[in-house]
Amino acid sequence: MSDTNADSLLARRIAEAAGKLLLTLRDSGMFSGKALGDAGDQIANAMILRALAQERPGEAVLSEESADCSDRLNCSRVWIVDPLDGTREYSEGRDDWAVHIALAIDGQPAVGAVALPEMGITLATDTPPALPRTNDPVRMVVSRTRPAPEAVAIAEQTGAELVPMGSAGAKAMAVVRGEADIYLHSGGQYEWDSCAPIAVARAAGLHVSRIDGSPMVYNMAEVWLPDLLICRKEAAPALLASVRDFAQGAR
Question: What PANTHER family has UniProt attached to this entry (predicted)?
Fold first, then answer.
C-alpha cells in the first residue's frame, strides 16, 4: 500500500502531464471552440486513466469523463479526477481552467493536485503553500455565469469585492494563492469539481466545508455536492453565520 506522500507526488505528476497534453492539443490548431473542449476532455481523461492503471493498478477511479461504477463504493481508496475543469475557459483560450487529480480515502479528500497549466503552476498536498496575507478589501471569487446568491449578499454586507472566475479549481487555488480570500458556492458541483481543490486548500490550512458547516464527504453514491466554502479559518464562523442569516431571511 502506498503512503499518501507518494500518492500526492503521483497526483502532481499526472496533473502536470495532463496539463501539458492539453496545452499541446490546443496549440496544435487541430480543433477550436466546443470541438477543442470535447477533444481535451477525452484525450486528457484517457491519459490520466492509463497513468493511474499503471501506477495504482486495481484502484477505483471516479472521473467526470468515464462511466461510473458502483463497485467504487466498496473501496477505501478512490481516485477522483476532472481531466479538464473549465472546459469552456480552455476552449476560449482563457487561463482559468485546471486539471484535478485527487484521492479520497474513506470518504476524506486525503490527496490532491490542481494544475493550472496556463500559469505553469501546480498546487498539491505534497508541498502545500504557506497562506499569504489577506486582501484589503476582502476578495471573494464567484462563478463567471452564476454567482451564488449568498456570496453576492455577503459581499454587499461586508464590502467584499467579487471576482468572477472560471473553473472551480481556479477559484479555489485563487484563495490558496492569496489572490482571493473567500470561495463560497451554492449552485451545486460534482465530486470531481471539488475533491482535489478541497484537499489542497485543507492541506494549506484553510477552512473547508459545506455552507452549513458540515464536512465535505466523497465517494458517495450520489456524486452531486450542493455547496462549499473555502476561506481562512478565522473568518469561517462569521461567514457561516451570515449564510445562516441569509437562508433564514430568504424563507
Answer: 3'(2'),5'-BISPHOSPHATE NUCLEOTIDASE 1
Grid cell listed for 208: 473547508
Query: What's the topology of domain 139-250?
Result: D-Maltodextrin-Binding Protein; domain 2 (3.40.190)
- Cite the annotated binding site for Mg(2+) by residue number: 64, 82, 84-85, 193
Using the structure block, give the residue that is written with the C-alpha cell 442569516: 245
* CA–centroid distance for 196 within its chain: 5
Q: Decide: 183 and 143 in contact? Cβ < 8 Å.
A: no
- Sign of the Cα torsion 76, 2, 193, 206 reads positive
* Per-residue pLDDT reduced to its tens digit, 196-247: 999 999 999 999 999 999 999 999 999 999 999 999 999 999 999 999 999 8
CATH code given to domain 4-122: 3.30.540.10
Question: CATH 3.30.540.10 in the chain, residues?
Answer: 4-122
Residue 89 amino acid letter: E
Judge if pTM exceeds 0.85: yes
Task: Judge contact between 193 and 124, C-beta under 8 A.
Answer: no
Where do you find CATH 3.40.190.80 in the chain? 139-250
CB contact at 8 A, 231 and 206: yes
Pick from 151, 152, 208, 146: nearest CA to 175? 208
User: In this predicted model, what pLDDT tens digit does every residue of 25-64 receive, in sequence order?
Assistant: 999 999 999 999 999 999 999 999 999 999 999 999 999 9
Q: At 118, list the grid cell.
A: 496556463
